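Both lines are quoted verbatim for reference:

——
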Amino acid sequence: MDKISIKKINYLDTFPVRSAVLRQGKPVETCSFLGDEAVGTTHFGLCIENNIIGVASVFTSNNENFDNKNQYQLRGMAILEAYQNTGFGKLLIEEIFNFIESNQVELLWFNARETAVPFYEKLGCCKKGTSFEIPEIGTHFLMYKYFD
C-alpha cells in the first residue's frame, strides 16, 4: 500500500494540481490567488509517497453574508483527475475540518463549482443563496459549514 499523507505545503506547490484541475488550458499565473502568501493562509497537500495529488488552501477571510466574526475561506480544493472519486477528497476536507476546529474557527465558507456541490453536501456543508457565474470558470454556489 502506498503511503498517504496530508501535510502543509508552500503555495507554489499547489500550482501543478490547481493548473491541471481548476485552470485547465489557462496560464499558470491564473493559479495564484490573492492572499496565497498571507500569514493567515495555510496550504495543504495530499500526497501519495511524496507526490502531491490533491491540494486545498484555507484563508483568513470574512464573507459579509455571514455574521460570524471568526471565518476561514476554502479555496483551490482539487484532486488530480486520476484520483478523483476514490475518497481522497474526503480525506483532505476532513483534515481541513480538523484544522478549522483546532483553530477554534466558527465558520468555513467557499465558492463551490456546481458539479462539486453534492460532494460538499455529503460532508455536512450547506448552500446559501442561488447560483452565480465566475467568468471563464463556471457556475458556483456559496457554501458553508459551521463549527462549534
